Amino acid sequence: MNSAANALLTTDEPAETGAQQIRDAIRDAIVERRLSPGTKLSESDVGNLFNVSRTLARAALQALSYEGLVSVEKNRGAFVAYPSPDEARQIFAARRLIEPGILREAAARITTSEIQHLRQLLLEESRLISERGQTARRAEIKASGDFHLTLAAISGNTIMQRFMEELVARSSLVIALYGQSTISSCGHNEHGDIVSAIEAKDLDHACHLMVHHIAHIEADLDLRERKGQGLKEAFDL
Amino acid sequence: MNSAANALLTTDEPAETGAQQIRDAIRDAIVERRLSPGTKLSESDVGNLFNVSRTLARAALQALSYEGLVSVEKNRGAFVAYPSPDEARQIFAARRLIEPGILREAAARITTSEIQHLRQLLLEESRLISERGQTARRAEIKASGDFHLTLAAISGNTIMQRFMEELVARSSLVIALYGQSTISSCGHNEHGDIVSAIEAKDLDHACHLMVHHIAHIEADLDLRERKGQGLKEAFDL
DNA sequence: GCGCAAATAATCGTATACAATTTGACCGCT
DNA sequence: AGCGGTCAAATTGTATACGATTATTTGCGC
Q1: Is B158 part of the contact surface with chain A (CB cutoff 8 Å)?
Q2: Range scoring the smallest mean pLDDT among A29-43, A89-103, A124-138, B198-212
C-alpha cells in the first residue's frame, strides 16, 4: 500500500492494531530494499525493535508470510523472502496475465481527474529518476510500483488491487535479487506511453504496451540460480 | 485446497503447525456451508472446540481473514464473512479476468494424463449431482470448485493457484448468501464442454465457454442487499 | 589438529495471565 | 413507562512464561 493508491481508493479504518503497523513498517523496509532477501527476522528482535512483545512481532511476520514477502520455516524462524528464479518467473507470468485485464477495466472507468492523477505520478517519478541519493532511489522504486497499483485502484476491484499489491511488492524483491541494471525503469518512459494510449482510448495498444513493459522488466533480470548467497561462490567467483 | 488439486501439485510439508490445521478445518466448514455467513467465531469458542489455546485460535482466524473468509472487527471479534453484493460482483469480475488466462496457460502445458484426471473429476462430479443427501451436496460444492482449482494447478503457476483458491472459496460464500437455484451447476455440463474444447485445442472457444460459465454462475445470484447484519452498510452505502 | 558427541545457548511453539474495550443489564430518576 | 447512567460480564489486545526444537559451542578421544 502507498499514499498514492490510498488517495484514490481507501476504506478508511484509522485504528490500526499494533501488529499491522509493524507489518507495514517491515513491508516498506523490504520493498524499499532496506532489508535484503534472506535476512533473518527473529521474533524477539522485531519485538524489541518496535518495543512490543513477541506476540505482535509474530503476528506481523505471519501476515507478511501470507503476502509472500517473508518465509517462515518451522522452528527456525522468519526470513525476508528469497524468491527462486522459478518463483520470479511465476510472479511476472502472473503480472502478464493480470495486468492487461486490470488495464482494460481501469480504462473503462477512468475519469479525467484520475488521468491527471496518473500524469502527476509520472511527473513525480521522472523527478525522482533525475535526483540522486539513496532516499531518491528508494522513493523511485516505490513510485514505479505506485503506477501499477494506481491503475489497479482505478479499476475499482479491491480484490485485484490486493493481488497487485502483493505482486508488485514481490517484484521489488525479485528485482533486488536478480536485477542487472541499476533501476528497472531504464530510460524509456513506458508508463507515460501507457497513459497516452489510455487517453487515446486505444485499449489494445495500451495492453500491448503493458505486456511489453512487464516483459522489459523481466528481461532485465539475470534469472540464474544463486546458491543461498553461498560463501563458497562469493570467493571462487 | 483440496485432495484433487493436491494430487497434482503439492509442496509436501507434512508437519502442519496446529494453527494451520484449525484454519483448514474452519475453511472447509465455511466452504461446505456448515458455517453460515455472519456467524460469530469467538476466539475462546474456537480454541475450546479444537482443544487449543486462544493463541492458536486467533492465529487461525487471522489467517482466514487474509483470505477474506472471515472478517475480524477490532475489539469485537471474528465473523464468517458476509460479502456484500458489491464484493460478490468483484469476486466474479476477478474470476472472469483471471480464469481465461489460467485456462490458456493450463491448455498449453496439459498432458494426456492430466486430461484424464480432469475427466475423472467430471465423472465424480456428476455422480455426486445424482446422489442425494446433505453430505453429497457438500461434496458437490467442493467438487465444483475443484475443477477450477485443478485447472489452476495444471497451469503451473502456484501464485495464480493461490489466488484461485481464494476466489473459489469466497465464491462459495457468495453463492451460499445470494444463490437462488439449489446448486450452481444447474443441468448444463459446462465443465465438460470446457475440457472438450481444451482437448480439441480450440483455446478461444474454451475461454469463451469459461467466461460464459462464470457468467452463468453469477446470473443465478440475486445480488440485492440483505439487511441481515450490516447496519453500517445498510445506511452509508 | 580433526572429527564427533554431549552440553549449552538461542529461538520458536503454545499456553496462560492480565489489561483494555465493548456489550448488555440493572437501577434510579424524571 | 421511558430515559440515562453506572456497573458487571464477556471478549479481545497484549505481554509474559514455560516447554520443545534447532543451532552452536565445548570437550574429549583419536
Answers
A1: yes
A2: A124-138
User: If you measure CA to CA, which chain B residue comes closest to A152?
Assistant: B94
What three-state secondary structure class fits A136?
helix
* B178, B86 Cβ separation under 8 angstroms: no
Q: Which residues of A touch B17 (CB under 8 A)?
A: 74
Integer CA distances (angstroms), B106 to A21, A92, B5, B29, B198, in order:
39, 16, 13, 29, 9
Sheet holding A70-73, edge to edge: A40-41, A77-80, A70-73
Cβ neighbourhood burial of B12 (10 Å; 0-12, 13-18, 19+):
exposed
Q: Å between B74 CA and C21 C1'? A: 10
Inter-residue contact B172 to B31 (CB < 8 Å): yes
In this structure, what C-alpha cell is assigned to residue A31?
Answer: 520493498
Task: Tell me which CATH code domain A86-219 carries.
Answer: 1.20.120.530
DSSP annotation of B226 reads -
E runs forming strands in chain A: 40-41, 70-73, 77-80
Q: In this predicted structure, what is the pLDDT of residue A8?
A: 34
Q: What is the ipTM of this complex?
A: 0.88
Contact B93, A157 (CB under 8 A): yes
Mean predicted lDDT score pLDDT of chain A: 88
In this complex, is the C-beta atom of A90 within 8 Å of any C-beta atom belonging to chain B? yes
Residue with cell 495444471: B154
Rg of chain A (C-alpha set): 18
Q: Which three cell numbers stand for residue B32?
A: 461446505
Gap from B77 CA to D3 C1', in Å? 30
Higher pLDDT, B225 or B132: B132
Residue the block writes with cell 475453511: B27
Q: Are B155 and B161 in contact (CB under 8 A)?
A: yes
Domain spans of chain B, in order of start: 15-80, 85-219
| pLDDT tens-digit readout, A173-205 | 999 999 887 665 566 789 999 999 999 999 999
Q: Is A160 on the interface with B (CB under 8 A)?
A: yes
**Does CATH number 1.10.10.10 belong to domain B15-80?**
yes
**Architecture in CATH for domain B85-219:** Up-down Bundle (1.20)
> What whole-number distance in Å separates Cα of residue B2 and Cα of residue A22?
33
Confidence of residue B187 (pLDDT cuts 50, 70, 90): low
